[in-house]
TrEMBL record:
PROSITE patterns: ADH_SHORT. It comes from Muricoccus pecuniae. GO terms for molecular function: oxidoreductase activity. Pfam families: adh_short. This is Short-subunit dehydrogenase.
């Protein structure tokens, strides 16, 4: 990108799934893009997005690390970030004590540490100029104890809560914070998270384009949160009134290894 004055939108986790669809939404709305992911497919995404008539810069970086986030921020080159879509995330199935610790740590560092570090840096600049939009990808998983996805659900519970907290802190400014809370969505999440032998891994899922459009439009309005899909809205409402022991057992039925129909 040669124009250092035009505002940009940053989208993380943009190589596939919801993140790639969020980047498409931003492109259709005229945003130039800085997109990032920890895999080389981010370059393929950039090529596709350029076909929508906007400038796109791609950064391959490990956003679970401070160095990776700093690499992304350096690529912004001091340009004004008009919108930040903090979407990068990892999932992980199986029982907590059966999981590899490095994978566990990677989920926490990607979903929480790297995400809030990026929001802290970009959000400070937004507050200083009293303008900007932040979209955080949480999940309806954050509403229930995630048996056989304990760490993942815990990180999403954090993000759901964190998003509303800073939404409130910034309510008297020109900066808005929106939490997108999808349900199971047709992405590579389930294969990467070792969840393909589960009921939720085998079930029909939401279209990532629909989820991204729902979240993007909520961000433009400045909504505090949005749940994508009526089934997910119903599930999240039920989860909010049932005892934790009940929802943990319900989640077990969906995520326990071997629960999927073969």
């Amino acid at each position: 990108m040669s124009d250092t004055t035009k505002p940009i939108a940053i989208v993380t986790g943009a190589s596939t799934g919801i993140g790639r669809e969020l980047a498409k939404e931003a492109a259709r709305h005229g945003y130039d893009l800085l997109i990032a992911a920890d895999e080389p497919e981010i370059e393929e995404a950039a090529t596709e997005l350029r076909g929508l008539g906007v400038k796109v810069e791609a950064v391959q970086a490990d956003l679970s690390t401070t160095d990776g986030v700093d690499k992304l921020l350096a690529a912004a080159g001091g340009r004004t970030v008009e919108a930040l879509m903090a979407n990068a995330g990892r999932g992980l199935g199986k029982g907590f004590l059966d999981q590899d610790w490095n994978e566990v740590r990677g989920v926490v560092d990607t979903n929480i540490t790297g995400t809030i570090y990026l929001i802290h840096k970009v959000g400070q600049a937004m507050r200083a100029r009293n303008a900007g939009k932040i979209l955080i990808t949480g999940s309806i998983a954050g509403f229930m104890p995630g048996s056989f996805q304990a760490v993942y659900n815990g990180t999403k519970s954090f993000l759901n809560s964190f998003s509303w907290a800073i939404h409130n802190e910034l309510k008297d400014t020109g900066v808005t914070v929106t939490c997108l809370m999808p349900g199971p969505t047709e992405t590579e999440f389930f294969e990467r998270g070792h969840l393909m032998d589960t009921e939720v891994g085998q079930a029909k899922k939401d279209d990532p384009a629909m989820v991204a459009k729902t979240g993007f439009e909520a961000m433009l309005r400045g909504d505090g949160d949005v749940v994508a899909g009526w089934k997910n809205k119903l599930q999240s409402a039920v989860a909010n009134v049932l005892p934790a022991a009940v929802t943990a057992e319900m989640h077990r039925g969906m995520a326990e290894p071997g629960s999927g129909k073969q």
